[in-house]
Amino acid sequence: MSNALPTRILGGTGLEVTQLGFGASELRQHTRGIGEEQAERVLNGVLDAGMNFIDTAPDYYESEERIGRYISHRRDDFYLATKCGCNITEAGVREEPLHL
């Protein structure tokens, strides 16, 4: 992938990611009002701009589904990081995180 954005190695993973990543919380329809067409344009625009790191979480509601729907055909173009411990019930209510 040709990339003009600066990159760094992600921790001890050896993965080369762009310093500028995309926080997928911006894809939340219920709080941000982002429609399907706009979500598709944003996600493809992120990759077209050269970013290869996308951050998401279960409590970003439909962001994970939209990533799969709109850019899974470009899976070799990006790394996806997701948080854990952010549990959402089917009713959309945040559950208390599991403390180990």
Features:
100 residues; globular; alpha/beta; 16% strand; 3-stranded parallel beta sheet; two-stranded antiparallel sheet
Topology (elements, then pairings):
Blueprint: E1 7-9, E2 16-18, E3 22-23, H1 29-32, H2 36-48, E4 53-56, H3 63-71, E5 79-82
Parallel strand pairs: 3-4, 4-5
Antiparallel strand pairs: 1-2
Helix pairs in contact: 2-3
Question: Can you walk through the features of this model?
Answer:
The protein is an alpha/beta fold and 100 residues long. It has helices at 29-32, 36-48, 63-71; strands at residues 7-9, 16-18, 22-23, 53-56, 79-82. A hairpin with a 6-residue loop joins strand 1 (7-9) and strand 2 (16-18). The termini are far apart. The mean pLDDT is 86.
Summarize the structure.
The chain has 100 residues and is an alpha/beta fold.
Strand order, sheet with most strands: 3-4-5
| Distance from first to last alpha carbon | 40 Å
Oligomer: single chain
- Number of helices, where a helix is a run of at least 4 consecutive DSSP H or I residues: 3
The percentage helix is: 25-40%
Instruction: Note poorly predicted spans.
Output: none
What is the radius of gyration computed over CA atoms, rounded to a whole number of angstroms?
15 Å
State the order of secondary-structure elements, H for helix, E for strand.
EEEHHEHE
Question: What's the total number of strands?
Answer: 5
Principal-axes shape call: globular
